[in-house]
């Protein structure tokens, strides 16, 4: 049986931080949930089979999406209720759950995520495309992901082919009104400037 990954049983402080997506709220903790650079995005309870914490959050009828990263949880709501009414309840739940060392994941997502990204970079592409893919991954990891995480989301590399980069937007970035603008004016311009082979950046996971 796989060893369950749990957060340390210690006093936990949590604060809520607004994101560019008005339907998403970022709950920042003083404890580590995942290794740096690793994140998981659950668009529904069925996808959250590996995370007892996320499954518990989906028991709140207004929770529509759960994103977990190194030291924060981004929750996207589905109802018209105001965050001012929801934050205290969610913050209390998260604090109690993590202080009680409730299981965060059944299996550590890190190895699986690393393998998936490596497979995406290599695949059946040519050696030149593989080198370009690795450049893109490095740029996304070093320059784009830290900024996106500040907004409660994440960006992952999916593929590169014929000058087109496909990325996946997660957490608050999925459904964010400004996601498309950020993708085109920020990320696409950066990659075009740093990797001349790139012609366009498109995204999956955008629900707007």
Give a summary of the structure in a few sentences.
One of its GO terms (molecular function) is iron ion binding. The chain has 208 residues and is an alpha+beta fold.
Report on this structure.
The protein has 208 residues and is of the alpha+beta class. The protein is built from 5 helices and 10 strands; from the N terminus they run E-E-E-E-H-E-E-H-E-H-H-E-E-H-E. The chain has a 5-stranded antiparallel sheet, with helices on one face. The longest helix is centred in the middle third of the chain and has 24 residues, at 127-150. It is globular, with a radius of gyration of 18 Å. The chain starts with a strand and ends with a strand. Belongs to the NifU family. One of its GO terms (molecular function) is iron ion binding. InterPro entries: FSCA_dom_sf, Nfu/NifU_N, Nfu/NifU_N_sf, NFU1-like, NIF_FeS_clus_asmbl_NifU_C. Residues 14-101 form the Scaffold protein Nfu/NifU N-terminal domain. This is NifU family protein.
């Amino acid at each position: 049986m796989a060893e369950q990954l749990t957060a340390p049983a210690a006093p936990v402080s949590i604060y809520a931080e607004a994101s560019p997506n008005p339907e998403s709220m970022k709950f920042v903790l003083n404890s580590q949930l995942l290794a740096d650079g690793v994140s998981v995005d659950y668009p529904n309870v069925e996808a959250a089979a590996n995370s007892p914490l996320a499954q518990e959050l989906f028991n709140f009828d207004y929770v529509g999406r759960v994103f977990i990263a190194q030291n924060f949880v981004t929750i996207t709501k589905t109802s018209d209720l105001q965050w001012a009414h929801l934050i205290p309840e969610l913050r209390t739940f998260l604090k109690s759950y993590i202080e009680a060392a409730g299981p965060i994941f059944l299996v550590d997502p890190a190895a699986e995520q690393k393998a998936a990204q490596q497979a995406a970079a290599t695949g059946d592409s040519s050696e030149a495309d593989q080198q370009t893919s690795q450049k893109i991954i490095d740029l996304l990891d070093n320059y784009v992901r830290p900024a996106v995480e500040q907004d409660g989301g994440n960006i992952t590399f999916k593929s590169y082919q014929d000058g087109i980069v496909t990325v996946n937007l997660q957490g608050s970035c999925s459904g964010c009104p400004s996601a498309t603008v950020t993708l085109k004016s920020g990320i696409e311009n950066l990659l075009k400037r740093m990797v001349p082979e790139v012609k366009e950046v498109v995204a999956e996971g955008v629900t707007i």
